[in-house]
Write a structure and sequence with these properties.
- With 236 residues, the chain is an alpha/beta fold.
- It folds into 2 domains: 168 residues, P-loop containing nucleotide triphosphate hydrolases (Rossmann fold); 55 residues, no CATH class.
- The chain contains 8 helices and 7 strands, in the order βββααααβαβαββαα.
- The protein has a 5-stranded mixed β-sheet, sandwiched between helices.
- α5 links the parallel β4 and β5.
- α2 crosses α3.
- The longest helix is centred in the middle third of the chain and has 17 residues.
- The structure holds adenosine-5'-triphosphate.
- Adenosine-5'-triphosphate (ATP) binds next to α1.
- InterPro entries: AAA+_ATPase, ABC_transporter-like_ATP-bd, Bact_Polysacc_Export_ATP-bd, P-loop_NTPase.
- This is ATP-binding cassette domain-containing protein.
- It comes from Ancylobacter radicis.
- GO terms for molecular function: ATP binding.
């Protein structure tokens, strides 16, 4: 329940779901259905008023969430900090990010000096640089531009094969590409579907404003980019 001075918003009612370890779960939902709230509950940054969230294994911060990074620190320092907090090897993560995102030349520069594109590359590579058991994403599973974007999408598929992935989306195309199991958030409840196609059909019957799905056209992926956080405010 969200409470503001003027209203109360009950987002979920008797929500009960279990996601199998090792699967990739795609959660579809219309605007305002509670996708971000659910990811925050799963990740632990929001606590439920009632009930419990039980996690088995380590869980990543939401993909491309920049909240953990400090603009005055270098990329390497930020990665060491996040790795330390989560019990992983900071130097291994730094090596991975520098190479994967082509940031070797700037990894020891303060992140405030990174261009927007470099920040995006850093955040996506950093999100997958540590071996969490569970990765969570609120709409932005991968991003960046050009060749990096392609490699980043392959990286998601590689992590999907090794870990549990839980992501929200409004895109049927993203569901087809990345989900093993489908779920639909609607009216405060979560409906799960072993067959992703059934989840997509249920969602399309509910959300009249679903992004267009042209069967392979990249346009509905653009929607995925909107939720990438810009952690450091205006660019320098
Ligand atoms: N901090 C908050 N305070 C009050 N109400 C909130 C807060 N965050 C979300 N809400 C409300 O809770 C409901 C669910 O919001 P949420 O952002 O989780 O949905 P969403 O499916 O992620 O939406 P979108 O697709 O637009 O990002 C909405 O009605 C929203 O207005």
């Amino acid at each position: 329940m969200y409470r503001t001075a003027r209203r109360q918003a009950r987002v979920f009612e008797h929500l009960d779901a279990a996601f199998p370890g090792g699967a990739s779960v795609g959660i579809l939902g219309a605007r305002g259905s509670g996708k971000s709230t659910l990811i925050r509950l799963i990740g632990g940054s929001t606590l439920p008023d009632r009930g419990k969230v039980r996690r088995v294994g380590s869980i990543s911060p939401p993909i491309a969430s920049g909240q953990a990074y400090h603009a005055a620190l270098t990329g390497r320092e930020n990665l060491h900090f996040v790795a330390r907090v989560n019990g992983f090897d900071g130097e291994a993560a730094t090596h991975f990010v520098a190479r994967f995102a082509d940031l070797e030349q700037v990894i020891d520069q303060p992140m405030s000096t990174y261009t927007r594109e470099r920040r995006a590359r850093f955040m996506f590579a950093a999100s997958y640089a540590m071996p969490f058991d569970i990765f969570i994403a609120d709409e932005a599973l991968f991003g960046g531009e050009g060749a990096f974007r392609e490699r980043c999408s392959e990286l998601v598929q590689a992590r999907r094969a090794q870990s549990t992935l839980i992501f929200t989306t409004r895109s049927p195309q993203m569901m087809r590409r990345f989900a093993d199991i489908g779920a639909v958030l609607h009216g405060g409840r979560l409906y799960t579907f072993p067959n992703v196609g059934d989840a997509i059909r249920a969602y399309l019957s509910i959300d009249r404003n679903a992004p267009p799905d042209a069967g392979g056209m990249p346009d509905d992926e653009e929607h995925e980019e909107r939720s990438i956080e810009e952690p450091f405010g205006p660019l320098v």
